[in-house]
Specification:
alpha/beta, 6-stranded mixed beta sheet, 13 helices, 19 strands, 26% helix, binds 2'-deoxyadenosine-5'-monophosphate, binds fe (iii) ion, binds zinc ion
């Protein structure tokens, strides 16, 4: 029964406190009781406590004795209600300045998927519809037609579709199979065309302008990606507060750089002017090394218990100065589901940390005093690097630009990035952020693209045997720091 209950909970995209699990298992019908509680919530709660389910049990019993046909349970005003992501923010602290971190969007508590084929169809339909709407507003694609109509036209056509396949012929021409809800058309990008250098990856949504030849092939004259507007102002804070960015700490690994960590931690707590202006630390995943993430990982661990790894991290975080509010999201080494979008850390891990840590999902869009930060661990860079000629692990900023142009964090499906079939595509870049940050590739850099500040946030782990074998040369112990007033960046090396 425990397993059935936990499966039910994860399908509903929420978390159960251990006490709530025990309480429910002592009830006659644990799933029905939890289900009735969840139905009574206006939104799926982030975590269900023992108080919630006990109260739900009382209400259900009262409802059953009072009126057998009560259609819906109502939740009393005193009951702990669901807390939507946008209201999970840190409480006020005694510092002279109140930190302000608001999670505007992440999957935590909103997962809906069960992993069926229908779910994937729904996910891709949603992706297509949203990105098509973005493309339709592009001047170059005004009057875009359905593929089924365009294929019969003898004039110039404009179509929007999802890339079902890209292949290169032996004469170096590229053929893109483009699909919309009802039809599909092969698009030819001639080897000698100026478009030959354009990168196109499977499952991205693009617009094509061209002519259909008598063999039904659409000869492309131009390709349009959703992209972001050419100019965007940085919506900065009025004071020069700064945010620092980290990821891939990999606590628990033998290659975790303890000495470098001691240095950055001391610096953050010291008297340096820049250090003293840092009020936020965004930690974008792989915060610990985890357990069983890759074959024979146990040989490379200095801490082989997952909770002990998070406890060690919590102790490290507790030594950071009080003025720094930490936002932490998971990556592919963390103890949450690997499929993206990843919900945030379970309560059993969160409770190990001090209250100045704010937990978010991967990816998440957050506001730091009004500055919008899109934080994503960056697993999809593995797929982008292997699909787009010219991209490399040393230039993660190029991969980030590729994501912004596609308005999608993980455009390629079926590669190394596992994607959960949620009802909506949470990996679409709906809103253009002020700062876009990724980690994962253990490199470092800052750049900007059309007014968006790009950050890749280094690592606190030395080269691992696996990375040595794959020629991945990390750039550890660098701390990118952004002035939230201006968007200006500096990188400090430790
Ligand atoms: O990833 C750290 C780095 O190692 C990152 O550049 C990706 C690379 N990496 C990790 N696992 C793989 C696999 N399976 N294939 C290719 N490249 C990989 P981390 O997430 O810290 O392990
Ligand atoms: Fe990592
Ligand atoms: Zn990673």
């Amino acid at each position: 029964m425990r397993e059935e209950l936990l499966t039910f909970v994860s399908r509903r995209g929420t978390l159960l406190e251990p006490d709530a699990v025990d309480y429910l298992l002592s009830q006659q019908d644990p799933i029905a009781q939890l289900d009735s509680f969840l139905r009574s919530c206006p939104e799926t709660p982030f975590v269900v406590t023992v108080g919630d389910v006990m109260q739900a049990g009382d209400i259900a019993r009262r409802a059953a004795t009072q009126a057998r046909a009560a259609p819906l349970l109502t939740i009393p005003a005193s009951a702990p209600s669901a807390i939507p992501a946008s209201f999970r923010r840190v409480g006020e602290r005694a510092a002279e300045r109140t930190p302000e971190v608001r999670i505007l969007r992440d999957i935590t508590g909103r997962s809906t998927c069960e992993g069926t084929i229908e779910d994937f169809t729904r996910l891709f339909r949603h992706r297509f519809q949203v990105l098509r709407t973005m493309l339709r507003s592009r001047r170059e694609l005004g009057g875009a037609q359905e593929i089924s109509k365009a294929r019969r036209s003898t004039r110039e056509v404009r179509v929007i579709g999802m890339v079902a396949d890209v292949r290169t012929t032996k004469n170096r021409h590229r053929i893109v199979e483009l699909e919309d809800d009802a039809d599909r058309i092969p698009v030819l990008i001639p080897a000698d065309s100026p478009l030959a250098a354009e990168s196109i990856v499977a499952d991205e949504v693009i617009g094509v302008v061209g002519n259909v030849n008598d063999r039904g092939l659409l000869i492309a004259q131009s390709i349009v990606q959703p992209d972001i507007p050419t100019t965007k102002a940085f919506h900065g804070t009025s004071d020069h507060v700064r945010a620092a960015f980290m990821s891939d700490i990999h606590v628990g690994s033998k290659t975790f750089l303890e000495d470098k960590w001691a240095k950055v931690s001391d610096w953050l707590g010291g008297g340096d002017d820049i250090a003293r202006s840092i009020r936020y630390l965004v930690v974008s995943g792989d915060v610990v090394d985890g357990i069983g993430v890759y074959p024979r990982q146990d040989e490379e661990l200095s801490i082989d218990d997952i909770y002990a790894q998070y406890e060690a991290l919590a102790r490290m975080m507790a030594l950071l100065p009080d003025r720094v509010t930490v936002l932490m999201l998971p990556g592919n080494h963390d103890a949450v589901r690997p499929a993206e979008p990843q919900p945030t850390f379970p309560q059993s891990i969160q409770k190990l940390f001090d209250s100045n840590i704010v937990f978010a999902g991967n990816p998440s869009l957050v506001s730091l005093e009004g500055v919008r930060v899109l934080a994503y661990h960056g697993r999809s860079m593995d797929d982008l690097v292997s699909s787009i000629p010219g991209l490399s692990y040393h230039r993660p900023m190029d991969a980030m630009k590729a994501m912004l142009r596609r308005r999608h964090l993980a455009p390629i499906y079926g590669g190394k990035t596992p994607i959960a079939p949620e009802a909506e595509d949470h990996l679409i870049i709906d809103e253009v952020p002020d700062i876009f940050v990724t980690g994962h590739v253990h490199s470092v850099g800052v750049d900007q693209y059309r007014g968006v500040v790009l950050v890749n946030s280094s690592t606190w782990q030395a080269q691992t045997p696996y990375q040595k074998m794959r020629n991945i040369d990390p750039m550890p112990a660098r701390l990118p720091i952004i002035d939230l007033a201006t968007g200006q960046a500096v990188i400090r090396e430790f």
